[in-house]
Structures are given as structure tokens and as C-alpha cells.
């Protein structure tokens, strides 16, 4: 059965810019009841929420300043969403940081932050406050979480963690008790400012590694394409699945090999 997005409520971390903002626009275009933009950037978040309300209607979008690495602060975003819209059906567990030069912060945001979202979503909010029979969590990983990239070893490792979260919390045992479907989203290179900043590499050796494989990363796509494909995945993907969106092509499912697969 197709998950009906119209009338649902979504919480989007990292929602003030980049893919998070495009997810918000796509969801609003599909008729969601409301979106919460949860982001550490207060100025941009407030401005974006105001713009979305002008475009899609009054009180369609709210902003909550959120530090996803702080469990109680992240929970405030869930509480505010329920208080404003009455329920919560979709979590875009999207906040991320690509800054291997500040690796502790990257691990905190990409791993601890995502885990906080999964615990809050699966066991405390989406399972209780969904408006229909099912809720959905999209875990933002990356193609870096499927292969690993030499220029970003920390970022790649954190995105491997995202795959683990989606596969583990997306297991049918958790779905049967919560009716919260989970899938991993792995975009390829996309036109955003996500990798901007002076601390994205450990040092010159890592930047050189980037230069050696830069050619294969040039086949980028638009964030609009990614968000359009994500809507389809929210509607139809099975729990525990992993999806790649790259080079402007339709999303395709990536299947992990199990130990038994190797031993056959």
C-alpha cells in the first residue's frame, strides 16, 4: 500500500538549507499538513520558514532551533511539532556535517545526532503520534557510506553508520511493534554547499586524494532531483532498504550481502 503524504506532518533536521530545504519544499508541494525545520542555524531557519509560509500557506512551516547532538534539545523539536500540528508522521533524519578536519564534531552530528533521532522517532514519537497506520523515517547516508572515499574517511565512516541504523531499526521486528518504516537515502554528488568550508579535509594529503578522484565526482545532480526521488521512496520503499540517487537518474535499491551470501 502506498504511503499517502498528503495531510501528514514532517520533521526535517538540517531543514534550513541544502537537501533538507528541498525535502521541505517537495513535501509541501505534495500537500503535507505541515513541516518543522529543525536546524542549528537560527537566522536562516526563521527566514526559510517565513518564505515557505508565503509560498505554501500560513502556518505550514515552523522553525525550531535544534542541536541534534543534544538529546533533550532534539526532543524539543519533536514536542514542538506535535504541539503545533497534532501529530508527526515523517522524520527526515537529515542533519549532517562534512568536516573531517573537525572530526569530533562530524561524528557527534552524523552519528550521535542520527541515533538521537532514531531513538526519539522509533520509540517515543512516530510510534505514538502518527496520524495513520504507518510512519516513515528516512536516514540520510551517502554513496560514501557504501564504498568509502579516501579524502573523507571520517565522513565516510559516519555514513556507514547511517546504513547500520537504517538496516537495524528497519528490521521487521521493530516495524511490527512500531509500524515505523525506515530506509536509508544515499545521494551521489549533488549541487549544494554541503562540502563548503576550510575544515572538510584532514590536511593536504587528503585534499590530494580528492584531486585524484575528482573526475568521478563531477557527474553531479540537482537537489530538486534528489527530493523528487525521495518522495517516491517515502511512498513506496520497504523497511530496512537502502536507496542510491545519483547522476540525475532514478533511485535504485542497493542490497547488502550477508555472511550467508558470502558462504554460499
UniProtKB/TrEMBL annotation:
<dbReference type="Pfam" id="PF00106">
    <property type="entry name" value="adh_short"/>
</dbReference>
<dbReference type="GO" id="GO:0016616">
    <property type="term" value="F:oxidoreductase activity, acting on the CH-OH group of donors, NAD or NADP as acceptor"/>
</dbReference>
<dbReference type="GO" id="GO:0005737">
    <property type="term" value="C:cytoplasm"/>
</dbReference>
<comment type="similarity">
    <text>Belongs to the short-chain dehydrogenases/reductases (SDR) family.</text>
</comment>
<dbReference type="InterPro" id="IPR002347">
    <property type="entry name" value="SDR_fam"/>
</dbReference>
<dbReference type="InterPro" id="IPR020904">
    <property type="entry name" value="Sc_DH/Rdtase_CS"/>
</dbReference>
<keyword id="KW-0560">Oxidoreductase</keyword>
<protein>
    <recommendedName>
        <fullName>15-hydroxyprostaglandin dehydrogenase [NAD(+)]-like</fullName>
    </recommendedName>
</protein>
<dbReference type="InterPro" id="IPR036291">
    <property type="entry name" value="NAD(P)-bd_dom_sf"/>
</dbReference>
Amino acid at each position: 500500500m502506498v504511503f499517502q503524504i498528503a495531510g501528514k506532518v514532517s520533521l526535517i533536521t538540517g531543514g534550513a538549507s541544502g537537501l533538507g530545504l528541498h525535502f521541505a519544499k517537495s513535501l509541501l508541494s505534495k500537500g503535507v499538513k505541515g513541516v518543522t525545520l529543525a536546524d542549528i542555524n537560527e537566522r536562516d531557519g526563521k527566514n526559510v520558514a517565513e518564505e515557505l509560509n508565503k509560498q505554501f500557506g500560513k502556518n505550514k512551516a515552523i522553525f525550531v532551533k535544534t542541536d541534534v547532538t543534544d538529546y533533550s534539545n532534539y526532543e524539543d523539536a519533536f514536542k514542538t511539532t506535535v504541539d503545533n500540528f497534532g501529530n508527526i508522521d515523517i522524520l527526515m533524519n537529515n542533519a549532517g556535517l562534512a568536516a573531517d578536519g573537525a572530526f569530533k564534531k562530524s561524528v557527534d552530528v552524523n552519528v550521535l545526532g542520527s541515533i538521537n533521532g532514531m531513538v526519539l522517532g522509533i520509540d517515543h514519537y512516530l510510534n505514538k503520534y502518527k496520524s495513520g497506520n504507518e510512519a516513515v523515517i528516512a536516514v540520510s547516508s551517502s554513496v560514501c557510506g557504501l564504498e568509502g572515499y579516501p579524502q573523507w574517511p571520517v565522513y565516510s565512516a559516519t555514513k556507514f553508520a547511517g546504513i547500520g541504523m537504517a538496516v537495524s531499526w528497519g528490521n521487521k521486528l521493530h516495524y511490527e511493534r512500531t509500524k515505523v518504516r525506515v530506509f536509508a537515502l544515499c545521494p551521489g554528488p549533488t549541487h549544494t554547499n554541503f562540502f563548503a568550508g576550510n575544515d572538510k579535509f584532514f590536511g593536504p594529503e587528503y585534499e590530494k586524494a580528492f584531486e585524484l578522484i575528482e573526475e568521478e565526482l563531477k557527474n553531479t545532480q540537482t537537489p530538486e532531483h534528489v527530493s523528487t526521488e525521495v518522495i517516491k521512496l517515502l511512498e513506496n520503499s520497504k523497511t530496512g532498504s537502502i536507496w542510491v540517487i545519483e547522476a540525475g537518474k532514478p533511485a535504485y535499491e542497493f542490497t547488502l550481502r550477508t555472511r550467508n551470501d558470502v558462504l554460499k
